[in-house]
Amino acid sequence: MKTAFDLEDYLAAEGARVESALARSVEALHGRLDEDVRLALGHGVLSGGKRIRPILCVTAYRAAGGTACDERIYDLAASLELIHAYSLMHDDLPCMDDAELRRGKPTTHRAHGEDLTTRAGAALIPAAALQAWMAAEAMGCDQATRACVVRALMEAAGGGGMVGGQWLDLDAEGRALGADELDGLHRRKTGALLTASLVMGAEAAGAPPEVRASLQGYGRAIGLAFQIADDILDATSTVEALGKHPSDAHLEKSTYVSVYGLAEAERHARAQVEEACGVLRDGGVEAPALEALARFVVDRQH
Ligand code: GRG
């Protein structure tokens, strides 16, 4: 049934533009990396996925009044996906989750080997920073805005964000975490990059501080909701639907399901979605697409 905002169409259209931007990113590395490293990188970057981070970035950009609708905003948004891709490639390595499947396909190291996957993942970090800088420059953002955009991306990717969260996660294997510890870990590991998606869109659009703050608050709330949904799917879904093997129980991880139970975890995720939409409304940000995306974060099947 069609609703006022057709999220399915939106995800398909935006996802296609993100795919084109990612193909440009991989192509731009031609001649700058050994070709076998670039092919491994291409496997990690172009093997599917929901592309939720760049879609959130572009959507936030528009909600904040941004008007560039051409390739440049998608190039900026795709820099987030380059960081996300590297994190999954490294997370799947034998020294971490040792995963064989990702998005229904062999993981990058299963297809290209550990050495090339490690190198390709590392190459993606500076490539993402450079791409964000150059895309913001092409969009006509001034130097201060370009610096804000790249800083948001790198801070979210770094020790105070995703890498720090992953570190805490590895450290916590086999240990029972409390609710606050779990939130702290996932605000960094998963939430930071999702929040940066919104912040980068807002910065690139030159949003006033209250709109930026509202989009950031929305990002923080859906960041947590996204991880709770991820834990629920890991506990309840199938390899076929997820395109990967559930791993939390096998790695003896504390999750939102192990800490709260299934029903309470679902309630907690939905409360975060309501919080996200409330923050938008309170900030005067009128964005049906962002409200629909918040609901998608918890309603998704993979
Ligand atoms: C060595 C300490 C250290 C860090 C390296 C590996 C790494 C950096 C970070 C891992 C971070 C990580 C795996 C976060 C998971 C976030 C998450 C919920 C991923 C799933 O995202 P989706 O559902 O995936 O958007 P798709 O496939 O749709 O792109």
Give descriptors for this structure:
single chain; mainly alpha; about 300 residues; binds geranylgeranyl diphosphate; 14 helices; about 0% strand
Summarize this structure briefly:
With 302 residues, the protein is mainly alpha-helical. It has helices spanning 7-28, 35-46, 52-63, 71-91, 108-112, 114-138, 143-157, 162-171, 179-204, 209-236, 239-242, 256-260, 262-282, 288-299, and strands at 101-102, 105-106.
In DSSP terms (H or I, runs of 4 or more residues), the helix count works out at 14
Give me the strand/helix succession.
HHHHEEHHHHHHHHHH
Protein structure class:
mainly alpha
Percent in strands: under 5%
Structural shape: globular
Radius of gyration equals 18 Å
Count of distinct strands: 2
* Strand line-up in the sheet with most strands: 1-2
What oligomerization state is this entry in?
A: single chain
- Characterize the biggest β-sheet: 2 strands, antiparallel
Query: How widely separated are the two ends?
Result: 21 Å
Task: Summarize the amount of helix as a percent range.
Answer: over 70%
Bound molecules: geranylgeranyl diphosphate
* Mean pLDDT reading: 96
Which residue ranges are poorly predicted, with pLDDT under 50 across at least 5 consecutive positions? none
Would you mind describing this structure in some detail?
The protein is mainly alpha-helical. 72% of the residues lie in helices and 1% in strands. Strand 1 and strand 2 form a beta hairpin. The radius of gyration is 18 Å and the shape is globular. Geranylgeranyl diphosphate (GRG) is lined by residues 49-50, 52, 84, 87-88, 90-91, 103, 162-163, 166-167, 189-190, 227, 230.
